[in-house]
Specification:
There is one protein chain. This protein has 2 helices and 10 strands, in the order H-E-E-E-E-E-E-E-H-E-E-E. The protein is of the alpha+beta class. The chain has a domain of about 120 residues: PCu(A)C copper chaperone (Immunoglobulin-like, Sandwich). Strands 1, 2, 3, 4, 5, 6, 7, 8, 9 and 10 form a 10-stranded mixed β-sheet that branches. Helix 1 packs across helix 2. The longest helix has about 35 residues. The chain is globular. The N and C termini lie far apart (about 80 Å). The C terminus is likely disordered.
Length: about 200
């Protein structure tokens, strides 16, 4: 293996590691939030967690991981969760020009250039607060809150998502609509009412 090939392999491994760390940090933070939320009642509106979709080409320089559309059942607001990585071994930074969900533009609060071997993680503002608390040591992971106008997307439905980077052809995929992780400390509980409630036995 030549020195250049060895450098390329190391760079790809570094970028993949960043993506794994970002996803792991997100999962850890959200798992902690779920645990502290207590026992959540199972209702007809709740759906099981889904794995986000992955697309892109590491050889071409950029990939996206863990892509999921979130719709909050209380506010009806929608957002997009994703992890975008730069595996370009030439040292070139890449920037997201646009993201659309079902043709609707996604607003990014902090759309920064993704440097070689680095990651941009998009999610709801609340999720990002939890993720940053769980992972404060990764200098090569940037974060952006996302918003998109909800078009009445139903839970568990599939919607097309398109990522357009500044130096690449669009990355297109289909992902699932899900509910965001409940806020820590919030839950629903049906105690029921006994006809003997309030009476001593």
């Amino acid at each position: 293996m030549t020195a250049l090939e060895d450098q390329n392999v190391k760079s790809l491994k570094s970028a993949a590691r960043c993506a794994s760390l970002a996803s792991a940090a997100a999962l850890t933070a959200l798992a902690l939030a779920s645990c502290s939320a207590g026992q959540i009642s199972q209702t007809a509106n709740q759906v099981a967690p889904v794995d986000g979709m992955t697309a892109g080409d590491r050889v071409e320089g950029v990939s996206v991981y863990d892509v999921t559309v979130f719709v909050d059942e209380e506010t009806n607001e929608a957002s997009l969760k994703f992890v975008a990585t730069n595996q370009d071994t030439t040292g070139t930074a890449h920037t997201i020009e646009s993201i659309t969900v079902d043709g609707v533009k996604v607003d990014l609060a902090d759309n920064v250039a993704i440097e070689e071997g680095c990651t941009l993680l998009g999610d709801t503002a609340r999720h990002l607060d939890l993720i940053k608390q769980a992972d404060e040591t990764s200098a090569c992971i940037n974060y952006t809150a996302t918003e998109v106008d909800n078009q009445g997307w139903a839970y568990a439905s599939d919607v097309p998502v398109t990522f357009t980077f500044d130096k690449h052809e669009p990355i297109e995929l289909v992902t699932t609509v899900s509910a965001p992780t409940p806020e820590a400390g919030t839950f629903e509980r049906d105690y029921g009412h006994s006809e003997h409630a309030g009476h001593a036995h």
